[in-house]
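From the pipeline queue, job 12 of 40. The input is one protein chain; the requested action is below.

Action: predict structure.
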Amino acid sequence: MSDQETSSSPFETIRHTTDDGEEYWSARELAEVLGYAKWANFVPTINDAKKACENSEQAVSDHFLETRKMVSLGSGSQHAVGDFHFSRYACCLVVQNADPASYCSARADVLCRPT
């Protein structure tokens, strides 16, 4: 479940917390916030963010956790789709590599401020 924040930040609205108190963001939810209509168009942005993570000498596996998510189909059945759980740092890298024309990309400073 998302932690609903009173903040106006769309990024904090989609933040999740594990049972251990670790925060993460779903890549599919972040793609929607950033205005990507198709997952396939968002994957190159994720890949660019992973490269930036490597270039900063951070372990990609610490910030980009590959996962699967069940989604409902029109027929009522469910289908597993790929997703990622991003750390706050990964979100910052993704947003920095996103389409600069996006309204939310322009507000990335809200997400990337230290907490």
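Job complete. Helices lie at 10-13, 27-33, 39-55, 60-63, 88-97, 103-106, 108-112.
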